């Protein structure tokens, strides 16, 4: 894998720099699909838990090979969606905003994740008042916190996050139930650089995104539909579902190194790379 060169005349860096990250993940050893709270979930469709674990283990080793640190939270019985660690909290400057889930099936995950943070030395933890599904709907760029609403997190949670983090929170309205969390429709690549699927947003939010990120990578419907935007970037390597081939090409043109992974079993719960990865910004 070599970094591609940025197109001539472009102000974009030809060589991207990776910054080592710390991630929190949850092994899918009890993963199954027993209920449906998004259009991807079908309890009638069999899930191969052993395969889910194997695919997840490959993602975890990949992060380690890239020089990142991976912390683990134990999965709790009866909470199959705990594997989607991104939903467990939002961590910025070492401050932890806990999650409060919209669907009753996932409600116990909020306190479970918060307990992990308290037990692991995080002193500034906030038990949220309003529904927010962690980094599923809060994505952090250098200048802003981008915040989804429409399906899960509430608008009041955006205000709560802005107050807690002291960073500007920009609300974005999601309109397609297939892209029910912000991290299924948009990914932060580096600094204030993002890629997104315009069709997932309301006309007003699309216009906001266009103004804020005139240079963004825009995903095709086909790449969005294989969860190509559910990606994790360290500033250079972008880990994303391997079937998002168009996005991989677009990313290479920008000087990133896309790395495709197969998380087909986790996709049956409506999540992929980013959903399985919570960034610990200490
Ligand atoms: N089954 C889970 C739900 O619907 C999937 C969550 C995916 N996570 C994410 N960060 N988008 O809540």
UniProtKB/TrEMBL annotation:
GO molecular function, one term: transferase activity
UniProt entry keywords in alphabetical sequence: Transferase
Listed SUPFAM superfamilies: Pentein
Entry-linked Pfam families: DDAH_eukar (PF19420)
Highest taxon of source: Bacteria
NCBIfam families associated with the record: DiMArgaseDdahMtb
Name the UniProt record assigns to this protein: Amidinotransferase
């Amino acid at each position: 894998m070599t970094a591609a060169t940025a197109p001539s005349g472009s102000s974009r860096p030809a060589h991207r720099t990776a910054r080592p990250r710390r991630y929190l993940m949850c092994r899918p050893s009890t993963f199954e699909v027993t209920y449906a709270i998004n259009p991807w979930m079908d309890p009638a469709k069999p899930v191969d838990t052993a395969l889910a674990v194997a695919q997840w283990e490959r993602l975890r080793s990949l992060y380690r090979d890239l020089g990142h640190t991976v912390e683990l939270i134990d999965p709790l019985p009866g909470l199959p969606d705990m594997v989607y660690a991104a939903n467990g909290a939002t961590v910025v400057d070492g401050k932890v905003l806990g999650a409060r889930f919209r669907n009753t099936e996932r409600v116990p995950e909020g306190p479970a994740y918060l307990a992990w943070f308290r037990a692991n030395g995080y002193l500034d933890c906030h038990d949220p008042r309003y529904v927010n599904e962690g980094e599923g709907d809060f994505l952090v760029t250098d200048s802003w916190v981008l915040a989804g609403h429409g399906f899960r997190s509430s608008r009041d949670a955006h205000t709560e996050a802005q107050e807690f983090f002291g960073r500007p929170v920009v609300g974005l309205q999601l309109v397609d139930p297939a892209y029910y969390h912000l991290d299924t429709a948009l990914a932060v690549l580096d600094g204030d650089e993002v890629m997104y699927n315009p069709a997932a947003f309301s006309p007003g939010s699309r216009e906001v995104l266009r103004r804020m990120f005139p240079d963004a990578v825009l995903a095709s419907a086909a790449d969005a539909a294989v969860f190509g935007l559910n990606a994790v970037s360290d500033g250079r390597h972008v880990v994303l579902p391997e079937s998002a081939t168009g996005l991989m090409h677009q990313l290479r043109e920008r000087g990133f190194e896309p790395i495709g992974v197969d998380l087909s079993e986790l996709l049956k719960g409506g999540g992929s790379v980013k959903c399985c990865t919570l960034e610990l910004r200490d």
